[in-house]
Fold this sequence. Notes:
Elements: H1 2-15, H2 18-56, E1 60-65, H3 70-76, H4 85-94, E2 98-106, E3 112-113, E4 118-119, E5 122-126, H5 130-134, E6 138-141, H6 146-150, E7 155-158, H7 160-166, E8 176-179, E9 182-190, E10 199-200, E11 203-204, E12 211-215, H8 216-222, E13 234-239, H9 245-259, E14 266-269, H10 271-314, H11 316-324, H12 329-366, H13 374-400, H14 404-409
Parallel strand pairs: 5-12, 7-9
Antiparallel strand pairs: 1-13, 1-14, 2-5, 2-13, 3-4, 3-8, 6-9, 7-12, 8-9, 10-11
Domain MacB-like periplasmic core: 21-254
Organism: Pseudoalteromonas prydzensis
Keywords: Cell membrane, Membrane, Transmembrane, Transmembrane helix
Amino acid sequence: MKYLSLFIDTTLELAQHKLRTLLTLLGMIFGVGAVIAMLNIGEGAEREAMKMIDSMGLYNLIVNAKEFDEKELKEQRKHSAGLSLRDAEVAHDSLPFITAFAAQKNIETYHIFSQYNNSDSRAVGVSANYFQLSHFELFQGRALNQADEQNFAQVALLGANTAKQLFPLGDALGQQIKINHLWFEVIGILQAPYLKKKEFQGVKLGNEQNQVFIPLSTALHRFESGLLDSEVSSLKLAIDKSVDPIVAAQALEHLLKNRHSDIDDFELVIPAALLAQQKQTQQIFNIVMSCVAGISLLVGGIGIMNIMLATVLERTKEIGLLRAVGATQKDIRVQFIAESFTISILGGLLGVVFGIGLSEIISMYSQWAVSWSMTAIVLSFSICALVGLIFGVYPAIKASQLDPIEALQSD
């Protein structure tokens, strides 16, 4: 009851100077709001990065065949046949940390259509375990399997966007689609991942939703390919989680360069390294934004000290009267610290609301991902309360040290 009464008295005192109190609150509101918005955006960016990396596979190494003009390609093919299934098999047999692999072959797609509509999607041939290594989820039907691979089956798995284009009514399973000159039966549809960005650290993502997947054997044997083209367009190799991806990538690169006669006709993508780079960038962003938010809170704290010092001057007679009727120095200190603490609490609460609103506005106009973080709210509110408490101590001490007789005689 004592603390409740103190809080009520403090609030009533602050309410007598509404405009001055509001102006003092603004520093705390902006500081807390900035901290919450910054941490929410940082949390959202980290979760978005994890979703993107998950689509590539954190413990995967991706090898892509490079594209060259015809003249360069002819010269390179004198020394290297390009990326092949044999590369993956040799890597799997030679490097003990590679646990599995999958391959992809891009098909030169002229047209894809169903009885309902056509699509500008691209057809690709993939190994049976491609979807396991890529962590893609199925929305309907089944994935490609080893039997499809062995039988050169004419079956297809559709990306979510491709399925909507070809089958607007949503009845894709069991239907027939035509890719170039061949008909395929639809056996499954991929789940569309919720990704706000289509690129991560220079690597394009989300293309699978605009693709048609068929067995790799079917793609290699039933579709034409350029004489100088690589056997496969990319390889995805899963590595043991206990091995450093950077070290694994160096060993794989060395092996492939030996097999390709040191011809630079492939590029290596390391999802784990991309994630580390993203985290480092995000950490720098967080530090900069934390400094800005901290300065704002510091300014707010100075504002609280300023108003409390002004309050001491205004209420000198009141302080003298309180001391005359028996109030101790401790009572005076508690009263003034309570007022500065109340300002910081109110500023913190309003700052939380402002921070949530600011996060939504930033997300809406910049298309950045935002994830609510209770840690951000508690941390920023606690810092705000601590700032109010610290900056209120000096004015409280100064008020408590006033001489009662001189205070009563002041104008």
